[in-house]
Amino acid sequence: MQQRTKISIIIASALALFGLLVTTIFDLFPSKQEPLVSIETPVVLPDRNEALPTGAVFDQANADDFAAINPSDPASDKQGTLERDAQDLAVFFIERFGTYSSDAGFSYIDDLSGFMTDSLRSNLEASKLATPARDGFYSITADLASVATDTFSPSSRSATFSAVLNRSETAGGNTEQYQQEALVLLKQSGSGSWLVDSVVWGNKL
Q1: Cross-strand bridge partners of residue 84
Q2: How far apart are CA 160 and CA 151, in angstroms?
Q3: Is residue 186 part of a domain?
Q4: Is residue 184 part of a domain?
Q5: 59 and 78 in contact (C-beta within 8 Å)?
Q6: Residue 199, φ and ψ in degrees, nearest 5
Q7: How far is CA 14 from CA 4, 26, 28, 120, 160, in A?
Q8: pLDDT tens-digit readout, 100-113
């Protein structure tokens, strides 16, 4: 066999072995591929308050409008802060105003002077002068049983509340207990504070 032929056979055999070796290596160590990552498109939910006007204040006066915009919001069923402030004053005032003792004189009026309109203050000052002195001990108390909003109008700056009071009246050594209705009318001052403008005592229940 010629020398050139031998060399060709050797080279061909070497190439075949090299190819087989490369194939074996790739089979043993497969190439690593990056896993496919699915990209999810985020779902954007609308803001539950985006329909509300910026800086809007909702209370009992426009509760229906608020409920129409956001009917699922529990705040739409709640009493507004402004109305709550007015009601709290009405309850405080009627309980104190309805509690009197002959030993304390007109303190039940004087102590409440800062919570009255000028009109009510003038009327009560006049009634103090016209009220004769009592003989013997007399007292009466007033504790809230219930209260309800009759009218509440921020536009007219007024509110009216109906209350039922538990009362205990002592005179001449005898004590009577009963319930009595009362109507409390409030007005809002120029500074925004609520003031009591009138108290009307109703029937015994």
Answers
A1: none
A2: 5
A3: yes
A4: yes
A5: no
A6: -130, 125
A7: 15, 18, 21, 119, 109
A8: 999 988 999 999 99
pLDDT tens, position by position, 1-11: 566 676 777 77
Largest CA distance in the chain: 155
Nearest to 180 by CA among 196, 161, 200, 197: 200
Count of domains forming the chain: 1
Tokens of 39: 């990209």
Instruction: Specify the amino acid at residue 154.
Output: P
> What angle (nearest 5°) sits at the alpha carbon of residue 93, between those of residues 171 and 131?
45
> Which DSSP letter does residue 59 get?
-
Q: Could you tell me the CATH number of the domain that includes residue 186?
A: 3.10.450.230
How many residues are present in the chain?
205
What residue numbers bound the domain in which 195 lies? 77-204
| Token output for 72 | 């699922």
Q: Is the pTM of this model over 0.90?
A: no
Contact 123, 109 (CB under 8 A): no
CA 34 – CA 171 distance, rounded (Å): 96
What residues contact residue 98 under an 8 Å CB cut-off, 6+ apart? 140, 141, 142, 165, 167, 182
Phi and psi torsions of 51, nearest 5°: -85, -10
